[in-house]
Amino acid sequence: MYTSIKLPRTSALFISALLGGVIFTSCASSDRLTNQSAPQIAANGAVNQLSARESNISQKAEAASIVRSRPQLIKKAAISLTVNSVEKTIDAVSQIINKQQGDLIGLKQQQPKNDNPRYTATIQLRIPENLLESTLEQLAKLGTVESRNITAEDVGDRLVDFQARLTNLQKTEANLQKIMDRAGSIRDVLSVAQELSNVRETIEQINAQLKSLQNQVAYSTITLNLEAAVSSTSPQPAFGLQVQETWNKSTHSLSAFSVGLLKLGIWLIVYSPYLLIFAAIVYGFKRWRRTHSPRLTQTPESTSSD
Is the pLDDT score of 191 beyond 50? Predict the structure, then answer.
């Protein structure tokens, strides 16, 4: 009877200690990549822990050397061209994209307006990184280059960090799965399952960020701005159309003026009481001033003669 009571408490303590050790070692392993020390080996458990740590560090160093074999750059380019025909140039750009195994990710065309009589277009391309320079050279041949620039961002350190964190979390996931298989009570299973779910969610997030960076490194973005060399003007309409357009504008103007007068009359009717009061005040003031002005301007001589 006494033995059956002590076994669950011992199992819970063992599971809690083992779970805490796995989480602590997975979090602390990333901070010990550069600061390695020679720990004192006192037992077989310490030897196994040291060998696992060294293996983890060697795997991270190997991953870092693979990633940093060449700069991991996210390149973005922008080029502006003045062309004879925007529509024909767009067709030529589509052929270049297909030839270079790229993708068209954006197209915006703007028709001529009064403030800007030239036909313009903006195209966004995605090209393999190793074909960026050749693609820019082919695009430059389509017209006159007005501006051209290339920017690059090195994300090699971020890739190494994501890969190291992903490796640690995957090992933590495997260890938590082993602990979950050994757990006996429902409480221990639920606790380990919660930690396992958090670790898997973090793995998915880091994996998505890692793939996004790798995709941006593999494919460069080009923003192409096109502008027609000659402003496009619309042809002069026929005489009948001009007369009809003038008639429509005049009748529309007359109707708008009539509606405006009607609205003004309605406003005057609504505010007529206030207008009458204001007119009465002005009339009374002028009448009072007219009756009192002779007395104010009368001189002493005029009074004595009277």
Answer: yes
